[in-house]
Structures are given as structure tokens and as C-alpha cells.
Amino acid sequence: MLRLLLNILWFILGGWAMGLMWWLAGVIMFITIIGIPWGMSCFRIGLLAFWPFGRTVVQRETLGQHDAGTGLVGFVGNVLWFVLAGIWLAIGHLLEAIALAITIIGIPFAFQHLKLARITLAPIGTSIVAVDFLEQVRLKQ
């Protein structure tokens, strides 16, 4: 129930704006054709930007997944991503975090923006999972 309340407050206090920015980046990536893999990531991360509480971002290697996104291809893809779109989305999240950190009630939301700013730097090779699922994975290890 608390996560739902936090997600609703988040959405009202600006989460919708950054979610739309992620989706705009995704549309632009799709237009380029070659950017379709990045566009798919933008839409998934955009959903996280709309409703971040209760979900987190982890490296796929943490989940035992090894693919092209977790190796050299993923590194090159992340560099291209950062130059083309990542830096701008990171700046947006940082500005929102600063604005929200000014108020006491906005501090937890500012931390969520910082979490999202981190993924804007290198989204390839990551997965978005429920916090509860991640705890189960860590218990098995």
C-alpha cells in the first residue's frame, strides 16, 4: 500500500514528465531504425520512471544472465547511448532531484531521480526487477 501511495505522489510530483522524456527518446531511437534496441530500453525504463517504487535496476550478470549486452557489445552500445541521449536524460533527472530535494517531502523522490539518473548513463546490460524478486535471488546465492 505504501509503494502505491509513493508511486502516485511520484507521478504527480513530476514522474510523468521524465517518463514522457524517456518515451520521447524511445520514439526518436525508433525513427533511426538502427536505434531500435535502445528505443525498446527507453520504453521499459520510461515505465520505471512513471512508477519507480517497488522496482529496482540490476546488472543482468547479477541475475546470472550473460549475453551480448553484458560484454563488449554492451559497453560500446552504452558509450553510444550516453553520447546520443543518456547525458540529456541524466541532466533532466538531476535537475528534478535538486528541485525535489529542497523540500522535506521531496527527499525520497529526489533519491529515486538519482537512481534513474544512474541508469541513464549505461542502460544496456541491466534489467528492471521487483525489489521482492531481487531479495529472493540474493537469498539463493
Contiguous runs where pLDDT drops below 50 for at least 5 residues: none
Average pLDDT taken over every residue: 87
Overall radius of gyration:
15 Å
Number of domains: 1
How many β strands by DSSP?
2
Question: Structural class given helices, strands, pairing?
Answer: mainly alpha
Tell me the series of helices and strands, N- to C-terminal: HHEHHEH
Helix content estimate: over 70%
Task: Describe what you observe in this structure.
The protein is mainly alpha-helical. It has one domain. The chain is 71% helix and 7% strand. The protein contains 5 helices and 2 strands; from the N terminus they run ααβααβα. The chain has a two-stranded antiparallel sheet with strand order 1-2. The longest helix has 30 residues, at 2-31. The radius of gyration is 15 Å and the shape is globular. 28% of the residues are buried. The mean pLDDT is 87. Residues 5-55, 76-125 form the Inner membrane component domain. Pfam families: YccF. This is YccF domain-containing protein. InterPro entries: Inner_membrane_protein (IPR052937), UCP028777 (IPR031308), YccF (IPR005185). Keywords: Membrane, Transmembrane, Transmembrane helix.
